[in-house]
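Hey, I'm writing a tutorial for new members on how sequence and structure tokens pair up, and I'd like a real worked example in the thread rather than a made-up one. If someone can provide the structure for the chain below, I'll link this post from the tutorial.
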Amino acid sequence: MVCGGFICTKNALSALNILYVLVSLLLIGVAAWGKWFDLVSSIRVVAGVIGVGIFLFLVAFVGLCGALKHHQVLLFFYMIILFTVFVMQFSVSCACLSLNKEQQNHLLEVGWNRSEVTQRDVEKTLNCCGFNSVPLNGSCAASCFNDVPPECTTCSSTIQQAAGEVLRFVGGIGLFFSFTEILGVWLAYRYRNLKDPRSNPGAFL
């Protein structure tokens, strides 16, 4: 059967959802690994990544079941959810790619001031102290702060060097997966309107 028929569309939709399952398991595994080895101590960050992984797994599971069983209702809800995710992810990806340095610095400072746990994680990982200034009379999780006198750089200068590259990377990955999502919507829509060659040729599906 030529590609574009029932079997080919079914296999393509199934393969796409298997990819989503693998990505969701990777997200959950990386978050659990980071928490287990104390690389990330923020419960909110870990819970957020695991939550995204579980959500993606559930969406992929619905899509996979709908593809294997040619289930009209599951495929319909799969299309709606995936299209909603596409709109949100595409918007966030474009925002990541369009942020200038001033906007990046503002977002970084807002995120820094929101959580002391995140501050300690960043200070310990990047070996820096404070955001705009080193707190000589305060506390810092970086190893350089134990030197006498402390010879630490501010975390803003360290983060800003990589912030642009990280945002471009995240935006690019987000755009790539957003186009796979719109592909999934198109495949599900096409698949719903195809007849199963194994069923009654006169039946309407």
